[in-house]
Every structure is written in C-alpha cells, then in structure tokens.
Amino acid sequence: MAELWKSLPSWVRNIVVPILVLILAWNLLWFVVGVVGALLGFLLKVLLVVGIGAGVVILVKKAAKS
Question: InterPro entries of this UniProt entry (predicted)?
Fold first, then answer.
C-alpha cells in the first residue's frame, strides 16, 4: 500500500485524495443523520400510536363503568 501511495503524483496525494475523503466523509455523515432521523421518526410514531391506544382504552373503561 505504501508503494502505491508513493507512486501517485504529488498533486493526486495532496489535492484529489483529500477531496475524495471529504466527499466520502460528508456522505457518511448525512447517511448517519438520515438513519438517526428515520429511527427518531419511527419512535415518535410508535409513541403516538401507543398514546392514542392508551387513551382509547381509558375512555372505553370509563364508558363501561357508567
């Protein structure tokens, strides 16, 4: 690997490789942000459904008592 790195022209090592690394890091960052956002959105929907279900159960029990 070191031989391959040393065989590259200096402009490739100093300009092209860092730009590619930045692009890959940027895409990886937004992938992680997207996954976390999707998980949070899913969690919010689950909590909303559970809350609505609990409210319905409470209302049905109150209606059954009266």
Answer: Uncharacterised_SCO3924
